[in-house]
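Continuing from the previous page...

OK, I double-checked the sequence for Penicillin-binding protein activator against my notes and this is the correct one:
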Amino acid sequence: MAASKNPTRRGVVRGLGLGTTVLMAGCAGIDLGGSGRGPGDMPPPAPGETPGVSAEPLPPPGGGPATPAAPGQTRVTLILPLSAGGNAGAAAQSMKNAAELALAEFNNPDVMLDVKDDAGTAQGAQAAARQALEEGAAVILGPLFAHAVGAAAQVARGRVPMIAFSTDSNVASRGVYLLSFLPESDVDRIVEYAAQQGKRSFAAFLPDNPYGSVVEAAFKQAVSRRGGRVTAIERYKPGDASLQAPARQVADVASRSDALFLADSGDALPRGVQALQGAGVDPKRLQLIGTGLWDDQRVFSDPAMDGGWFAAPDSAGFRGFAGRYRIRYGQDPVRTATLAYDAVALVAALLKAQGGGRITDEMLTNPSGFAGIDGVFRFRQDGTNQRGLAVLKVTTAGGEVISAAPRTFS
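Thanks. Re-ran it with the corrected sequence; updated C-alpha cells here:
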C-alpha cells in the first residue's frame, strides 16, 4: 500500500499491524494523534453544517423519500432516543454530537451518517431499523436501550450487522454486537487482578436489582475460573435504610475472606460500607474491590473507600476526547458519548480499508480487536465484547491506575 500524504489516513494505516483484514481502528489515535489536526481546527458548526450527516425524524408511512447518499457513499444509520424525555434525550444528543465529531475527524466523505430518532421505544426502534434497511444502510449503529435493541434486531438480524449500545448482554447475538461497557468485563478484570495479588477467598455485598444479579453471576464465574472460593454473597434492597441484617451476614465471614466485592455507586455505596463498618467489618483489613461504578467523586471522597480497587477504562482517552468535544460543541459530553464516536470511527475505518461495500460479521469479530477512545476492545461471536480495562485504586484525588489496561489481546 502506498504511503498517504493525508495525516488522517496515516493514523488509520498505523492500526493495520494488529489485524490482517480489519484495522486496529480509525480511532486508534484518539489522544489527538489520530485525526491529524488539532481541536482548534474545528470551529463549532452551525446547525446542519456537519458534512455527510442527515438527521431527520421518521416520516409517517408513505412519507417523503429519505436524503439519498451521494454516489460512492455508504449509508450508515445511527438510531438514538433523541426525543425521549429526561436524561435519555440529553444523552442521545451528546452521542449524536460525538458521532458527527468522529465523521469530521476521520475526514471520510465516503460515509453518509443518517441519524434516526426511536423516541426510546421498541416500536420506534423497529420502525427506524426497517426504514434503514429500505434505504440501503450497510450497518446500523444503536439503539441505546435493551428493549429497543431487541426490537430492531428482529428486523435487521441476518441482513445487516448492528453495533448497539445497551449494557444488557441478553440482547447480544451474532450480528447484534454490543459496544457498551458490560459489567461482566469489569467483574472479570477486578477478580483476575485480585487473584494475581494473592486473594483467594471472596465475599460480596450487592444490590438486589437487575445490575446486582448480572454482577453476582459474573462474580461467581470469575472467582471459580481463578480457583478462588466464595465465602458469602449477600443482597440488599437499594434505598433500604435497614442494611444491618445483610451487613451482619458479611461480617460473620469477614475473617475468612481476603476481598469484599461491592457493586454500587454514588451515595448507595458509602451507605453500604457504613453499614458494614457498623456490623464490624474493617475495610482496612479486607480488600475492597468493585466495578466501574466506583468511578465517582462521592466514592473518592469517602475515607472508608480509600485504597479500594476497581476496574474501569483508563480515563486518559476520554479526557482527550472530552476536550475536543468541548471545543466543538461548547459543553461536556456524557460518558457514553465515546461509544457513538468509536462506532462511527470503526465503521469508517473498515469501509475505507476495503474501499466501501459491506460490513461483515467476520470483519467485526476479528480476534485482534480494535483500539478506541476507551482502549482496546473486540467483539465475541455471541455479540458481547471484551475490553482492555485498567485497575484503579481509590484515592481522595480520584482513581489512580495500579494496573494498566492491556493494549493488545494476546
